[in-house]
Amino acid sequence: MQRAPQTRALFGGALSAVFPQSSVDTSELREIPDNQEVFAHAHTDQSLIIELVEFQAQVADQDAARYHFEDIAGSNKATEPGAFQVTTVVPVSQSELSLSDCSSAWILTGIQSVSKFNEDAKNTVTLHLALLRLPQFSTDILISFNDPQSISPDSSSAASEETHREPWTLQDFQRLVQTLTLHDPGLFG
After folding, report:
1. pLDDT in tens, 58-95
2. Distance linking the first and last C-alpha atoms of the chain
């Protein structure tokens, strides 16, 4: 039975957004940093991450999504030549967003070659990254959609590849970005 997308409270209700079906809050499974909300697809190896990070004032708006993408590549240990590539960076119009407080918004699409849990096996993952800039709160909001394209047979993720039922789509990600709403600016301190 297919479940409809649902609005989820984030960061104790300070934010909310519409999430696609089959999203599982991973904080119920493992510890997640306080500045992140992480959701995994129930049947695939896809994930969605909403992260509050420090506003990077030294980085121009048009370069900030690439800056954060490269930072994520570093965290994923995907920094060797050819391990990551940006394919597009496009601005998002304020009229397309529920988050009226952001000064600019960008969506980057790129590819990273990453391993899970420090494994040797590398998986090719398309990373869709939305950046919502909130300089008045000294915060950048990152929304990442990790969409595996090829999974190594030696990866711990290989088992989930067989159960690729109803994967999330780029439209699911875009709806989440467009519906992100701020309810309590106190979230930013």
Report:
1. 999 999 999 999 888 877 776 677 778 889 999 999 99
2. 41
